[in-house]
Specification:
Layout (H helix, E strand, L loop, with lengths): L1 H28 L4 H16 E7 L8 E4 L6 H8 L4 E6 L8 H6 L4 E3 L4 H16 L3 E4 L18 H10 L3 E7 L5 E2 L4 E2 L2 E7 L11 H21 L1
Parallel strand pairs: 1-9, 2-5, 2-6, 3-4, 3-5
Antiparallel strand pairs: 6-9, 7-8
Helix pairs in contact: 1-2, 2-3
């Protein structure tokens, strides 16, 4: 049965890749409709790994910067699916050099950054300011990358997100993603759709609490521990 599921899952991955490929081309050809293309593709991808999505808390319509735990590459598709409005993602500059994919990034207000280049980081801050002033929400993962060994635990947060939020005084709203990475099994590879939960925490301004960054990380990890303990019981 696992082998059959593995074969079906491979076909799903191929379909997903084609979806992203076509979406990227459409965004390049007709960027005015990019939101429709992106949301449609995200819903197709999300259906592959989520049999149900539970949302706790509410998205603050005034939040400017969303920060969350990075669990899988499909985190983006999930958040695009549950949030109807346009989201701005910050990606490493190498993705902007990938054929076709670059259209979805460079023609849809996404932000590309070279983390090793100070000038690029300053440009990123400038672009985040411009996007948020236009009323768009920017999404960042403070970890920078995901914990492939244990997605239940967050790795050390980078200081860049803290600097951006404080420098621009953005209204921040944290979110926590539960159970998404466990839809993707190994040995053999297969996709087994799971019940995914997204928890929105209360939003705030960094200036109101000097220790907001450390305390937010601690609170999010406590939520992860509690939620996975419930799943294991």
């Amino acid at each position: 049965m696992k082998i059959l599921n593995s074969i079906i899952s491979i076909f799903k991955i191929i379909i997903g890749a084609l979806c992203v490929f076509i979406t990227s081309i459409l965004c390049g050809i007709n960027p005015k409709n990019e939101l429709f293309y992106r949301k449609t593709c995200s819903k197709i991808l999300t259906k592959m790994f989520a049999k149900e999505i539970i949302i706790e808390g509410k998205l603050d319509p005034e939040a400017q910067l969303l920060i969350g735990n990075h669990t899988h590459n499909m985190d983006i598709a999930l958040m695009e699916t549950i949030i109807p409005e346009k989201l701005i993602w910050v990606a490493k500059k190498e993705l902007g050099e990938t054929p076709v994919i670059k259209y979805m990034l460079t023609k849809t207000d996404m932000i590309l950054v070279d983390r090793n280049n100070k000038r690029s980081i300053l440009q990123m801050i400038k672009e985040i300011k411009e996007r948020t002033q236009r009323g768009l929400k920017v999404v960042l993962f403070p970890e920078g990358t995901r914990n492939k060994l244990d997605p239940k635990k967050m790795i050390t947060w980078k200081n860049g997100v803290k600097g951006v939020a404080e420098k621009l005084n953005l209204k921040v709203q944290p979110f926590v993603i539960i159970n998404l990475p466990f839809a993707f099994k190994k040995n053999p590879f297969r996709i087994e759709p799971q019940t995914i939960k997204v928890i929105f925490l209360d939003s705030f301004y960094p200036k109101d609490n000097p220790n907001w960054y450390e305390e937010t990380r601690k609170k999010m990890q406590e939520i992860l521990d509690k939620e996975y303990q419930k799943l294991n019981n």
